[in-house]
Design brief:
This protein is 21% helix and 27% strand. The chain is of the alpha/beta class and 235 residues long. A six-stranded mixed beta sheet has the order 1-2-3-4-5-6. Strands 7-8-9-10-13-14 form a six-stranded mixed beta sheet. Strands 11-12 form a two-stranded antiparallel sheet.
Length: 235
């Protein structure tokens, strides 16, 4: 598996590009704020053709560029995949933000925040199997950060990863290296997060490479041993 990542221009949101190999179709995961030029450079350098966008949840910092990435006219338009319970957020994620945060965003970028909904949205549920661009994905619904937070699992790891890891999980804002996603925003729930950590995250094999929505990659073995939010949990 071929994978590249880079942080967005705001909130250091990780944007991932995943393919079976250079020169193939690819998946774009969580295209946030100010990522379009970087994505085009990645596509050109590695001869990649985007096939779909995966959204781990519907917060603006993870979806801001989804519509231009998916843009175009049928049949060229790309689908955006999101959990059914976060589908409503794609109608206007700016409206769900604190007005002061929107103002700070506009002051930073010197332009009014605008939004248009992607034209093709595919909703997914829990434990669904989807195959796109030659990559087999499994969805794991893990609410708490938002109602529809989802993790995408792949039974492969990128090249160059140390031995002992045999699968990848894109965790979004469910689990970070040494931390978890906050639960005090609109649609968040501490009760739901605790259940997701216990029932969905904790059972993941130690051989899982974790690619979070913010911060560095980590492994399930490391997080089980050191993440304070996972201590004492049992499924």
């Amino acid at each position: 598996m071929f994978m590249l990542s880079f942080p967005a221009a705001a909130f250091a949101t990780n944007c991932y590009v995943i393919a079976t190999a250079p020169g193939q179709e690819c998946l774009v995961v969580d295209p946030g704020i100010g990522v379009l030029d970087s994505l085009q450079a990645v596509f050109a350098e590695h001869r990649l053709r985007p096939a779909a966008v995966l959204l781990t949840h519907g917060h603006l910092d993870h979806v801001y560029s989804v519509t231009p990435v998916c843009g175009g006219e049928a049949p060229a338009v790309l689908p955006a995949y999101i959990h059914e319970q976060d589908r409503y957020r794609l109608q206007d994620p700016i409206r769900l933000l604190d007005p002061m945060l929107v103002l700070a965003f506009e002051q930073q970028f010197g332009a009014k925040a605008t939004w248009s909904e992607p034209s093709e949205v595919v909703t997914v549920g829990d434990d669904e199997r989807v195959s796109i661009a030659g990559i087999d994905l499994r969805t794991l619904h893990a609410p708490g950060h938002t109602e529809g937070s989802v993790m995408f699992g792949i039974e492969a790891v990128p090249g160059g990863i140390p031995e002992g890891l045999d699968r990848t999980m894109l965790t979004g804002d469910v689990l970070f290296a040494g931390a978890i996603g906050r639960t005090d925003l609109h649609g968040g729930s501490d009760v739901a997060m605790q259940n997701s950590l216990r029932e969905v995250v904790y059972p993941l094999p130690d051989s899982t490479l974790l690619l979070p929505g913010h911060g560095p990659a980590t492994t399930m073995e490391r997080e089980r041993a050191t993440n304070p939010y996972l201590r004492g949990l049992r499924p």
